[in-house]
Design goal:
With 292 residues, the chain is an alpha/beta fold. 27% of the residues lie in helices and 17% in strands. β4, α6 and β5 form a beta-alpha-beta unit. Bound molecules: S-adenosylmethionine. The site of S-adenosylmethionine (SAM) has 21 residues, from α2 and β4. One of its GO terms (molecular function) is S-adenosylmethionine-dependent methyltransferase activity.
């Protein structure tokens, strides 16, 4: 175990105990200081129950077994090889950033917490050899960990990409479900703004938790496929929820300006244990979204 992951992470707690502890913590961080609640957990560093210290198996499955949908990290354009830009918002310790780099993407890991950024940088140094190049013909991309608030624009200047940077791949893993549901309209608007308008550009959402009752609260907040569908079809707009917190979907409502279209939806071949039921069946979904 390395310096950066040597603190006890209280893995002895059950899922229910862990969720109750998270709810207790965030009861003091509602509203405008919500993101500071995450930063406080990173600053203390002994209760990071989402932190698996290993990349998402569902992302690896998508990149390897669904390349027909999501493509590869490089594209040829007029004899020039272009490397795609990827973003992992709320990247935690940065493990999925390292995975995408090993598949050839130039990747930005965005974190609100300065302590998470430090953890990412340490982990990347100490574990570089655990993320070998996936395909020698494509090679390895670059990584940059950037501190900033997903909902603000200032961090884009720190990515090393152009100022109005758009991304060819965005991976959301336990970021949507980490947000208070009131932030979801802004989440969808920001995703729509950050994703390049291109048939080659994909927002990949790992949908989790898909079966948690909405009334149980969060984080993680209930995130069934229809919640992503309703918000990404109407970026920036209020979406109706019932008294228990279940999204109310109107399947016949026309999509709104900036809407993303779902072009793929499946259970991944594998996912972290938390996304499986007691029989080991994968309950998470992967959803692929694009601009029209
Ligand atoms: C549940 S954790 C998931 C981390 C990572 N995706 C993983 O799977 O290990 C959510 C992360 O989002 C970060 N976060 C929360 N609000 C944010 C914001 N507004 N901008 C950027 N990061 C944020 C938190 O610091 C936290 O590390």
């Amino acid at each position: 175990m390395s310096k950066s992951d040597s603190k006890p992470l209280r893995r002895d707690l059950s899922v229910e105990e862990t969720r109750a502890e998270l709810q207790r913590h965030f009861a003091n961080h509602k509203g405008s200081n919500y993101a500071d609640g995450w930063a406080a957990l990173w600053a203390k560093g002994d209760f990071l129950p989402w932190d698996r210290l290993a990349p998402s198996p569902a992302l690896a499955d998508t990149l390897i077994n669904h390349a027909d949908v999501v493509g590869h990290a490089i594209v040829d354009h007029d004899g020039e090889t272009l490397r795609k830009h990827a973003l992992v918002p709320g990247c935690g310790r940065g493990v999925d950033v390292l995975l995408l780099q090993s598949f050839g993407y130039d990747v930005v890991g965005l974190e609100y917490s300065p302590d998470a950024i430090k953890a990412c940088e340490d982990f990347a140094k100490e574990h570089a050899e655990d993320y070998p190049v996936h395909d020698e013909k494509i090679g390895k991309g670059s990584i940059r960990f950037v501190q900033g608030d997903f909902y603000a624009g200032d961090w884009l200047e720190k990515t090393g990409f152009e100022k109005d940077a758009k991304f060819d791949l965005i991976y959301d893993y336990t970021f949507f479900c980490a947000m208070e549901p009131r932030l979801r309209p802004a989440w969808a608007k920001r995703m729509s703004e950050l994703l390049r308008h291109s048939p080659q550009a994909n927002l990949i959402c790992l949908e989790f938790p898909t079966n948690k009752p909405a009334a149980a609260g969060g984080p993680p907040f209930a995130s069934p496929p229809k919640a992503y569908m309703e918000h990404l079809s109407h970026p920036g707009q209020e979406v109706k929820y019932d008294a228990e917190g279940n999204v109310r979907i109107n399947p016949l409502a026309p999509s709104s300006p900036g809407a993303l279209e779902r072009v793929g939806h499946w259970h991944p071949a594998d996912t972290h244990t938390i996304g499986k039921n007691a029989d080991g069946k994968v309950e998470d979904y992967i959803a692929i979204w694009r601009h029209h």
